[in-house]
Amino acid sequence: MRETDELDDYLAQERAQAFEWTGQRNGDCQLFPIGWAERIGWPLAGASWRGRYSSEEEARALVDRRGGLVSAGCELFGPPRIGSAAQRGDVGLLAAEGWHLGMICTGSMWVIRAGDRGIRFCRREPDIIWDLRFRA
């Protein structure tokens, strides 16, 4: 399987899933990019997130305890991408209304977990990007 097929498969699977604050599957804006990372070679990416919250308030509290999503992302994925354009499969965070939305780069667009509608493609660039490089 080509590496780009893995992202297509992941997005097709997630497209059918509704948004949910369960802290289990990839149903919210935090776990959506973490689920992608797990799929391509970061098997423990969600270990400290999954099952640790069951509501937006609990998710925000967990994020606050970790110093915010940018800090948590750096702890998980290392330093962000600086000085080069995002690549297909990279993940990022977009600041929105006092929160950060997790995003995945398709190469030409970005994908977010969009409320109760599954996923949504957008052209808006995230504020911070991590180079995950396909490991699959």
UniProtKB/TrEMBL annotation:
Pfam families: DUF6950. This is DUF6950 domain-containing protein. The lineage of its organism: Bacteria, Pseudomonadati, Pseudomonadota, Alphaproteobacteria, Hyphomicrobiales. It comes from the Bacteria. It comes from Rhizobium halophytocola. Residues 5-124 form the DUF6950 domain.
